[in-house]
Write a structure and sequence with these properties.
EC 2.1.1.-, transmembrane helix, 7-stranded mixed sheet, 340 residues, alpha/beta, Rossmann fold, membrane, Methyltransferase, 3-stranded parallel sheet, Put_SAM_MeTrfase, globular
Length: 340
């Protein structure tokens, strides 16, 4: 951060990215060999979870790549930084990887990111990595970067080796490693889980565990296997962004909503938002809004209708409708669960 009078500037990307967050994002895309060095991978990378995000520069620079990040950090170290992030107009919230599940449905993100995030990923039998596993989509990536100064540090090497061992048992694979950045990928199907030797830790979660139950639910030291349909289709079944915003996602079936009902809801909200702007344009300055909260997001139709405006929406699902939040994420939007 650089203080200029009464304003604060955030040049480049701060201490997390010495060569700038924009160059770091391109470097990740090159490591993954994505077309044209674009991290969005032709629209297949849309939702990102950035843990220990600082002032959310990574998420800020992702916006121009048509990627939406949920940037989270705890209030013990990063409280003021999350405030800065929100005042910059960057999607972010206070969030803690501790004992309770994150308030996001299973299989919501294509990429999880940790750069100098100060998280002990090996604690309690790797339960925090298992939480990342829960929220990553099939084939999703985990990008982990540590400071270059730690390259030859024995403790850093021990941690790296232990993480590799745990993630291998979780059926993740190393996609690429370069300098102090490593990218792992989650499996596309249950195939690897079914081939593990009996007694391998961590175990698969029991059949009665609901991976989408998040409100006041403790993390579990187990792997959430894919539903039979997702396993058979070898992936989430989502189409690329931006088409996925208005396409009926496969998980509608989970909540008992038909594609026809979904499309009707989308049309209703397009009409409503159009009427909102007609009523407000005479009294609201252009670009006055940036951070928007939908306190009862349902299927995310309100946020979808705002796609062509320069705002982002925090979609909030009440606890009694939390199952619908997965549809919000499947549309390429973000949100959380809250008990109003």
């Amino acid at each position: 951060m650089v203080v200029n009078g009464e304003k604060i500037n955030f040049p480049g990307g701060g201490t997390h990215f010495h060569h700038g967050a924009d160059k770091y994002i391109v470097a990740l895309a090159r490591m993954l060999k994505f077309p044209s060095d674009k991290l969005h991978n032709s629209g297949n990378i849309r939702n990102v979870l950035d843990v220990g995000c600082g002032v959310a520069s990574f998420g800020a620079y992702l916006l121009s790549h048509h990627i939406l990040a949920m940037s989270i950090a705890p209030n013990d170290v990063h409280e003021n930084q999350i405030q800065f992030a929100l005042e910059r107009g960057i999607p972010s919230t206070l969030g803690v990887l501790a004992t309770k599940r994150l308030p996001y449905p299973s299989r919501s993100f294509e990429l999880a990111h940790c750069s100098r995030c100060r998280i002990d990923w090996l604690q309690r039998d790797g339960i925090l990595l298992l939480e990342l596993d829960r929220v990553l989509r099939p084939g999703g990536y985990f990008a982990y970067s540590s400071p270059e100064a730690y390259a030859n540090d024995p403790e850093n090497r021990r941690i790296g080796n232990a993480m590799n061992d745990l993630l291998k048992r979780m059926c993740w694979r190393v996609v690429v490693k370069r300098d102090q950045t490593v990218l792992w990928a989650k499996p596309l199907t249950n195939g690897c889980y079914l081939k593990r030797e009996h007694g391998t830790q961590p175990p698969l979660c029991s059949a009665d565990d609901d991976p989408d139950a998040t409100w006041n639910v403790h993390m579990k030291a187990c792997i959430s296997p894919y539903p039979a349909k997702m396993h058979k289709e070898k992936g989430s079944g989502l189409i690329p962004w931006p088409q996925r915003l208005t396409a009926a996602p496969p998980r509608l079936e989970d909540i008992g909503v038909s594609p026809e009902e979904f499309h009707e809801d989308t049309k209703i909200w397009q009409f409503r938002v159009s009427e909102y702007w007609k009523q407000m344009k005479s009294v609201v300055r252009k670009n006055y809004f940036r951070n928007v909260m939908d306190m009862n997001s349902n299927l995310g139709g309100f946020a979808a209708a705002l796609k062509d405006t320069d705002v982002w929406v925090m979609n909030v699902a009440p606890v009694n409708k939390s199952a619908r939040l997965k549809i919000v994420y499947d549309r390429g939007l973000i949100g959380t669960v809250h008990d109003w």
